[in-house]
Each structure stands twice: as structure tokens, then as C-alpha cells.
Amino acid sequence: MLTIGELASYAGVTVRAVRHYHAKGLLPEPERDHSGYRRYDAGAVVELIRIRTLSEAGIPLARVRQLLQAGEEEFAAAVADIDKRLRAEIRERRRHRERIARLACGDSLALPPEVVEHLDRLRALGVDERIVQVERDGWIPLAAHSPERVPEWTARKRDQIADPQFIDFYLTLGQALDRTDDDPRLVELADELAAYITRMADEQGEDYVDDADIEPPLVDLMDAMAFDALPGARRLIELLRKRGWTGWTKLERVTPAH
Hints:
This protein has 258 residues and is mainly α. The chain contains twelve helices and two strands, in the order H-H-H-H-H-H-H-H-H-H-H-H-E-E.
């Protein structure tokens, strides 16, 4: 026969836990012996281990009581269900760990691998980091809203940046970012960008310069993000409008203002 301390030790719990299970009616309290001590048999050890195992699995104590009173088939079915839930939780925790591990990777936290690859390619080609960051921020809502279209959009981007003239567009855009609104060079850059866009649209079709069929609310959101991050971008778009083009995320041909 075992003392309460020995019972707790064999079952891997504390004496306080044993008393708590007594109070909750999960583990019956044995009668005291002639010395005034409660003595436990081997069955109490098995029962306490069952209680501990179920409790550690996150089963509420009220449910533990029901399971302990269940028949063998019901108990086995309940344990199988618990095991299924725990395996699902393990998979979810692994996903969380993977996401946490990617925190150090920056872009990959919220973006699919093909988008991260595209952004890294822009950096390797010398595109201004501010433009890369704005593009990254724009990809985040796009990927969240329409994940199924990410492969299509990134494939299109891959084709575009394979064109040296398209990279020149990015590089010229980068030069415009540090210009003040009244800088004459900003006007020259707007001329260069408008000429490039027009030439590409005439040669490749307007779909080549338009970011394919993004819903208007997302376009507005992405434009706002760009203008907030790149103050010079709004002035540049104003200048481009006078040269026949408008939009940041979605470039569109317009009738130039006179």
C-alpha cells in the first residue's frame, strides 16, 4: 500500500494535484488506516496516471470525469478523437514555428516564395530599395486576397523584368524619388517614363504595362500605400497624366491635359 506522497511520485504528479483530484471527485479517497493515514493501491496509481494524461492533453476536468466513467468502447473512441485533435494542433504549431522562423527572412513572412524571388531579383538588378519595399507592401494584400492568381502575376513580372528596357523604367523611376516637386529634372524623368510606357504599349500592347485586372479597391489601396511611402510618386503621376498616362498600380492611357 502507498502513501499519498508515494502515489504522487509514481504517477508523476504533486501531492497537491492528488488532493485537487480528490476535491474534484476524480480520484476516490481511500479510508484511513489505523494510524490515520490514507493508503493507496496499485489501481489508484493507474487511475491517477489516466487522469494526469487526459488533463495534460487539455481535456477539461469535467470531461475527464465523464471519460473515466465511460465504457471501454466510448473511452477508446474519445481517446482517438483527442489524439486526432492533438495531431491537428501539432501541425498548426509547426506552421506557427515555421512562420516565426521566417521572421528573420523579412519578405517571406507574408509572401509566397515566387513573390520573394521576384523582389530579390529586383534588388539584384539595382532597383531602388524604396520601390522594392512599396512593391512588396502591394503584394501582401494581393497575395492575401487572390492567392490563386499569384503564379500568373509573378510569371508576368518575370517576363517583364527580363526586358532591359523595363528595368530602365524601374531605374528611371528610382531617380525620380529624390526630386522635389519643382525640380526640372523631375519633368525630364516624367518625359522619359511617358515615352517608355507609350513605346511599350504600342509595341507590346497596353496589357504589357497594365497590372492585369486588379480589382479597383485593391488598386486604390496599393496606390495610397505607394504615395504614402514615396511622396515624390504623386507628383510624378500628375506629370505623367499630362503626358497621356495615369495610375501607379494600374497604368492607363488618358487624353493628355492641355
